[in-house]
Automatic annotation (TrEMBL):
Its main location: membrane. Residues 71-287 form the ABC transmembrane type-1 domain. PANTHER family: BLL4140 PROTEIN. This is Sugar ABC transporter permease. GO terms for cellular component: plasma membrane. The keyword Transmembrane helix applies. It is a multi-pass membrane protein. It is found in: Cell membrane. Belongs to the binding-protein-dependent transport system permease family. The chain crosses the membrane at residues 12-31, 74-98, 110-130, 161-183, 266-286. Signal peptide: none annotated. Pfam families: BPD_transp_1 (PF00528).
Amino acid sequence: MTNSAGFLRKHWKGYAFLIPIFLVLGTFKYIPFFNAVKMSFYDWNGANVKEFIGFDNFARLFRDETFYASLKNIGIFTASGIIIQLTVPLIAAVLVFHVKNMKLQNLLKVWFVIPLVIPSIVIYLTWQWIFAGEYGVLNQLLEAIGLESWTHAWLGESKTAIWSIIFVNFPWIGGITFLLYLAGLMSISSELFEVARLDGMNAWQRFIRLELPLVRSQIKLVMVLTIIQQIQSFENILVLTNGGPGDKTISPALYLYTKGFSYSEMGYASAIGLVLFILLLLLTLINNKFVKNTDKID
C-alpha cells in the first residue's frame, strides 16, 4: 500500500491528465446510466410525469410480444455478424499480410481502411438506394441480366428484409476488424513462419496450425465488439426499414429509441436499456470464459 502511494505521489502529474477524462465519462456515461437504472422503476415521460411504480415496467416488458420479436431479430443479427466478422475480414487480413510486394500491401491496407472514415449514415443511405423497389440498383441489375423473377421489394418484404440488412456492407472487410486481425498477424514472430516453411506447411496448414491459434486474442476481442455493436446499434435499421415490415426487423435498441423518443415512455425505455445491459454483460462474461486468449493455448 505504501509503495502504491509513493508511486502515485511520484507520478501525480501523469495521472492528473486522467482527471478530465473521468469527468467527461462521469458526465456523459456513468451519471446517465445510473439515472436510467433509477428511472426504470418510474412511470416517467422525460419531463413532468414521474411516478414510482416499482417493477411494473419490467413486468410489462416480459409480456411485450414486440420485445420478444426484437430479441429474436437481434439473435439473428448477432449470430450472422459473428460469423461474418470471424471469417471474411480474417481471410482478407491473412491474404494481405502475405502479399510480398510492400507497395501493393500498403495500398490494400489503405483501401480496406477507407470505409472507417465514411460516415455510417452515408453507407446506409447508399444501401437503401441499392435495395429500393422497382428502380433500385439491385432490381435494375437483375432485370438487365434477365432475372426479373428474382426482383423483390428487398426492404419491404418480410422474407427478405432482415437478410437485406445483414447483407449491408458486403463484402464486410473494410473496418476495425480487418485492422485487428492484421495487427495480430504482424505480431507473430517471423521465425515461426520460417519454421513453418521449413516444415513444408502449405498455406492452409500454416493458417490452421500457426496463424489461427496465434490470433485467438483478436478473435476474442472481435467477438465481444461484434456482440456489443449488434445489440446496441439501431441506426442501420432505423434508416433502412424503421423496424418493418411490421416488427420483422425491429431490434431492442430501436424499440428502446421508439418508446423513449416517439412515445415519451422514458421509464419503460430505461427498463429496456437495463435489460439490454444485463444481456450484454452476460454474453461478454460467457465469451471471456469460453474463448481462449492467445497466451492460454493448451
